[in-house]
Write a structure and sequence with these properties.
Residues 78-88 have a biased composition (Gly residues). The protein is mainly alpha-helical. The protein has a domain at 27-72. The chain is built from three helices and no strands. It has helices spanning 2-12, 29-48, 55-78. The chain is elongated, with a radius of gyration of 30 Å. The termini are far apart.
Length: 88
């Protein structure tokens, strides 16, 4: 029993012997920052599309709506094609 206990301690704590090869080196700060940013972006997307079956369709619809609004703004600002109010 003592032998098994010592062996398992070596696996958990590499400084007690033998398992130093199992330790994963820490990536450089730039790589770590990039990984954290990617993970945060992934979580954000998952949160935004929770319950949505087809997120690509939602994005297409959103872009189309923005284009329609943009076109409406340019049309109304040029003075042509909009509704006119007459008082009188």
């Amino acid at each position: 029993m003592t032998r098994r206990l010592n062996k398992s301690m070596g696996i958990c704590m590499p400084c007690f012997g033998g398992a130093a090869d199992d330790v994963v080196p820490t990536p450089d700060p730039e790589t770590r920052r990039r990984q954290l940013a990617e993970a945060a972006e992934k979580r954000q997307k998952e949160t935004n599309y929770r319950g949505v079956k087809n997120p690509e369709a939602v994005e297409r619809k959103k872009k189309k709506q923005e284009e329609i609004e943009k076109q409406a703004m340019t049309t109304s600002s040029s003075g042509g094609g909009g509704l006119r109010w007459q008082v009188g």
